[in-house]
Amino acid sequence: MKFQWIGEVVNLDKHSINMAEQSVIVFGKGKKEREVYFNTGCSIWLMGLEKS
Q: What span, in angstroms and rounded, lies between the C-alpha atoms of 4 and 14?
């Protein structure tokens, strides 16, 4: 399945986003926690969401 991670994105908690490290904590299957890193483009997009 191409977009199996979409549920993790939809359920993001803004407190789990670390802009300094460009990472976010997501919970996958079985509530397993993992850290995912994102690029500068995602960082800019997230900052735009934060302002709205």
A: 21
pTM: 0.70
Phi, psi of 43 (to 5 degrees): -60, -45
Q: In the numeric block, which tokens belong to residue 46?
A: 């997230």
Cα distance between residue 5 and residue 47, in whole Å = 21
* Eight-state DSSP code of residue 36: E
Residues 13/24, Cβ–Cβ less than 8 Å: no
Question: Mean pLDDT across the stretch 32-41?
Answer: 91
> How many whole angstroms separate alpha carbon 28 and alpha carbon 43?
21
